[in-house]
Amino acid sequence: MKKITATIITLNEAENIRDCIASVLPVCDEIIVVDSGSEDETVAIAESMGARVFHQSYLGDGPQKDFGVQFARNDWILSIDADERLEDDAVRAIDGLELENTDADAFAFRRRNYVGRHWIRAAGFYPDEVVRLYNRQKCRYLSKKKHSRVEARKIKHLSAHIQHLTYRDYAHWIERINQLSSRDAWAMYEDGRCVRPLTPFFRSIWAMFRKLILKGGIFQGKDGFTVAITTAFHVYFKYLKFLELQEKQHEINSQEESD
To answer: Is 0.90 surpassed by the pTM of this model?
Structure first.
């Protein structure tokens, strides 16, 4: 077993956390879970599997994923989401690494994204390379509050896989778009950004063009169009919700000025 600390952020992940932890146990000698207020059995399950659980209100994607690193005993960190699992080839790849001698700062994996049992490969959903194993002395997650990533100079790309149970079914995909668009709107608002009324329209059109044309979704059948349409839908409502937050704040400011 390697001297690697797995870090996992959670919120109501009782149905996922057990399998997630089980997948990293063969290569990690420490598991850290950062929970942001789960109301289900997430924390109890994680602790029963030997994880150290720390409680932290959600700080945004990058800061939340970086939060648990300060408690790690090891310099090598494996960051994995609760709805992800290391596949067997990833376990073998990590097991074969000589981390004490490598000149790499971080390692990237190929991620397979699923809707139920259906593997979505279209419009950039595969190989979807993600940096997840990194040396905290040399790199860390960007402080971005949405869609953060590990910033590293020397990244080695492994032909090994992380399985991502992205959505239970297509209905869940729509539910998650609603949840994630709200979270992303909040993150942009917290970052002090400002958008114009037509931004949702132009951004969503660009998102669909990128997925259909630049990522080749137009040639990839149902999956290609599904990815393009849902991406545009997500982007449109993310910016629409952001405008709503802006308008509410403007009303508050106007009220305070009139008082």
So the answer is: no
Cα–Cα separations (whole angstroms), residue 177 to 23, 98, 146, 162: 27, 40, 14, 22
Considering only CA atoms, which of 79, 68, 78, 83 is closest in space to residue 20?
83
CA atoms within 13 A on the CB side of 257: 6
Q: Are 89 and 42 spatial neighbours (Cβ–Cβ below 8 Å)? A: no
Cα separation, 188 vs 155, in Å, equals 28
Q: Taking Cα atoms as reference points, which of 144, 143, 110, 145 lies closest to residue 127?
A: 110
Total Cβ atoms within 10 A of residue 180: 15
Phi-psi region of 6 (alpha: psi -120 to 50; beta: other; left: phi over 0): beta
d(CA 52, CA 203) in angstroms, rounded, equals 41
How confident is the model over 27-54, as pLDDT tens digits?
999 999 999 999 999 999 999 999 999 9
Is beta strand 4-10 parallel, antiparallel or unpaired with respect to 30-35?
Answer: parallel
Q: Which residues contact 110 (CB under 8 A, 6 or more apart)?
A: 126, 127, 128, 129, 158, 159, 160, 161, 162
Q: What is the pLDDT of residues 240-251, one digit of tens each?
A: 999 999 888 878
Q: Cβ distance 27 to 91 under 8 Å?
A: yes
Tell me the pLDDT band of 187, cut-offs 50, 70 and 90: confident
- Alpha-carbon distance of 253 to 259, in angstroms, equals 10
Strands 155-167 and 106-115: parallel
Report the alpha-carbon distance of residue 214 to residue 235 in Å, rounded.
Answer: 17
pLDDT in tens, 126-153: 999 999 999 999 999 999 888 899 999 9
